[in-house]
Request: fold
Amino acid sequence: MGCERAIIHVDMDAFYASVEQHDHPQYKNRPVMVGGTGGRGVVAAASYEVRKYGVYSAMPMTRARKLCPEAVVLPVRMSRYREVSAEVFRIFREATPDVEGLSLDEAFLDVSASLALLGSIETIGANVRAEILRRTGLHASVGMAHNKYLAKLASDAGKPRGFVHVPRDGVRSFLDPMPVSRIWGIGKQTLPKIQKLGILTIAQLRKADPAVLSQVFGKRTGHFLALARGDDEREVVASRADKSLSREVTFDQDISEPRELLAELQRQVESVTGRLRSQGYVARTIQVKIRDWRFRTATRSRSLVAPTASTEVVYKQARVLLQKWLQEHLNTPVRLLGVGVSGLEEPDERGINYDTTAQKVLDKTLDEIKRRYGDNKATHALALRRNKIPRED
Ligand SMILES: [Mg+2]
Reply:
């Protein structure tokens, strides 16, 4: 026992695409892309069948379609993915309360305290994976180790349907042959510099002279050497919900009409605050992101005195931010618009913090309709003024 930790990293395989293949069995074993289908749509997820063609997520859909014209292209159904995600996270929490979600389909589980009750780390990892398959019909990759960094590398190493345990005495043989780019924090900036020193693998980094490394890493030399040895002391921080929620849309065609932008903003606020309410949180800060036709991006934010999850309250604040930008950039075509909330907290006795009871009733009704019939079935009237449905990417 002692301070030895047991960390499992679980990552669903091609999550959105796999949910679609599961819900539409006719697309099983076929190349499937999920994402925006409009002119500027982006691939949000690619099934393993389509990745063979060089398609990856965040790629423009037009390019992806050229690489694999026979691929099935499906729209993003975020509410469905959230529903499956909730089930997957329930399974995680049956193994341990110490679950740190990284996204809808990925989490760290600290199962150190569960070992006595549920068996070895491999037993728990195997059970989690089997339970996910049984209850959702989906495959996950599982990585197991005594810290987060190794557990994450282990699940990546096995993908898809991976099951990799890195025991203490196997750390060196696991890490050494890997390219240095696999180390967390070695990004596009640092990688060429370190490669210039002749360091290509993690083994070479581990054995390198710290004085030489410090030319590239500076004060962080010790940190990167520790990672090269497989050392990582960070704790699993149990999270109950996302720390921030956001939604953004790249338009098929740039929009400069303020009324249209405000209608889109309303839709986004509804989506974000709906998620906020479904997770039982209120938010303190509201942010609006605007990218114009020349790719200049502005983010504007406001903090509230009283945190809220009300669509109307958040919309009013977001509208002020957008209108201020519009005044400063008259007739500037907008390419992307997004809204986000952060500073999430549990509501106090005032609850969601509505200005009026009518707002509360409206939010509740819309949440219920959306829950039953899907994201696009109901909206505040203002959002309907937009003449076409935006694409999500
Ligand atoms: Mg995944």
